[in-house]
Amino acid sequence: MSGMTKRDLIITEADQLFYQQGFEHTSFANIAAAVKISRGNFYYHFKTKDEILDAVIQLRLSNTQAMLEQWQIEGAEPADRIASFINILLLKRVKIQRFGCPVGTLTTELTKLQHPAQEEANKLFSLFRIWLCKQFQALGYPQDADDLAMHLLARSQGVSTLASAFNDEQFIRTEVEQMHQWLQQYTQKVA
Predict the structure, then answer these.
(1) Cβ-based neighbours of 118, under 8 Å, separated by 6 or more
(2) pLDDT tens, 145-180?
(3) Under 8 Å CB-to-CB from 82, ≥6 apart: which residues?
């Protein structure tokens, strides 16, 4: 994390703490301790926890957009790019088993709290939905693209939730394999 400003470091640490402990259960003191700064120095950068939350959501939006752009570059075909989305469950399985999906847990918590940032956090799901929709359109399913995107999003969220609830890595592996088989059915219909 060298080269990061103190503000960037606060946002990065807050992001991890919001993911691991939840927004509501993370205090200024928790974040300040993680960054190893005094609360006074902390307040220089952020006056409220909501300001930090807004910055964390913007960081997540930026990181998600960058990841989707990378998948777009790396995947030669739409099916390859969709497979990258599916494979994120395997790549992040240790954290998913322990904490669930970072997008799903944050949006669910903010919904329960009826927090004003809920709408902005929901943009994280929208990024995935729109991107997946474009991939299914490119795969040859323009009429069903949004339904397919939502199905895959819903399934990945269900896998994340249950893998976390049961702390079950094999469940993730089995579900990822089944999602790849499901995707292959759509690839074969086009070919």
Answers:
(1) 107, 110, 111
(2) 999 999 999 999 999 999 999 999 999 999 999 999
(3) 132, 135, 136, 139, 152, 183
* CA separation for the pair 152, 168 (Å, rounded): 20
117 and 50 Cβ atoms separated by less than 8 Å: yes
Distance from C-alpha of 112 to C-alpha of 90, rounded to nearest angstrom: 28
**What CA–CA distance (Å, rounded) separates 175 from 163?**
10
DSSP H or E stretch at residue 131: helix 118-139
Question: What digits encode the pLDDT tens for the residues 62-107?
Answer: 999 999 999 999 999 999 999 999 999 999 999 999 999 999 999 9
pLDDT tens digits, residue range 101-133?
999 999 999 999 999 999 999 999 999 999 999
Report yes or no: 16 and 6 within 8 Å, Cβ to Cβ: no
Q: How far apart are CA 75 and CA 183, in angstroms?
A: 15
Cα separation, 176 vs 158, whole angstroms: 12
* DSSP state letters, 10-37: HHHHHHHHHHHH-STT--HHHHHHHHT-
Instruction: Give the end-to-end CA distance of the chain in Å, rounded to a whole number.
Output: 46
d(CA 14, CA 30): 9
> Residue type at 90?
L
pTM: 0.93
